[in-house]
Amino acid sequence: MAANTINTFPLDRMIGQLVEFDQIDFEPLMMEFEAILKEDNDAAVMAGIDGFDMPLLAVTYRPDPKAGTGRVRTPSERPFNNLSTTAYKMLGGPPLAPRGMDSRIATNFRTGIAQLESQKAWLVLWAWEDVVSVDDIAFLGFHFRGEGNLPVRNLAHLRPSTYRRCKAALHDFTVKLISRIRGRS
Q1: Helix, strand and coil in the chain, % to nearest 5
Q2: I need a surface site. Which of 32, 73, 152, 178 has the fewest CB within 10 A?
Q3: pLDDT at 73 > cutoff 60
């Protein structure tokens, strides 16, 4: 997972002058960041966009892009929600999402909030959970790095568009916070 940060030092300094940092509840902002990450992951999955807002290289082994993206429920399903090669070829979803929004790249996307008391910091984490092969091997990293014969299809970055949305949410949060602080003065 990529580590991207938004520098809030100037804001932190100003807020520190006005109110104790410990009194500010950042959880609503972190929850908004989580929602943005989920929405943007879902949109990028369906658009076939990587972690840099660039189109993913098309899949060549699914010859019929009009085949559909519906959930395939056949005897070909294998452990950990894997499909056989034949079943994958029946689907027309975007790269890494042959079943569209029913693909594990969408359904197994997870976010979480963490607060580091010692550093007075909040984190929003994201990852794809339990996207594994029939042998229980997490394989998305192979796609992200383009290992073996795989082309690079790297979703593991904070997309520039996602960053802009989070930055706008931080701005709105800050404006509301300063308005509340000024209202107390």
Answers
A1: 45, 10, 45
A2: 73
A3: no
pTM of the model: 0.80
Tell me which residue of 122, 114, 168, 171 sits closest to 22, measured CA to CA. 122
**Mean predicted confidence (pLDDT) in 105-117:** 94
CA–CA dist 104, 144 (Å, integer):
15
| Tokens (6 digits) for 4 | 């991207």
pLDDT at 68 over 80: no
Q: How far is CA 80 from CA 9, 34, 45, 136, 167, in A?
A: 44, 26, 20, 7, 36
Which residues have CB under 8 Å from 152's CB, separation 6+?
57, 143, 144, 145, 146
Tell me the residue type at 120: K
153/142 Cα distance (integer angstroms): 9
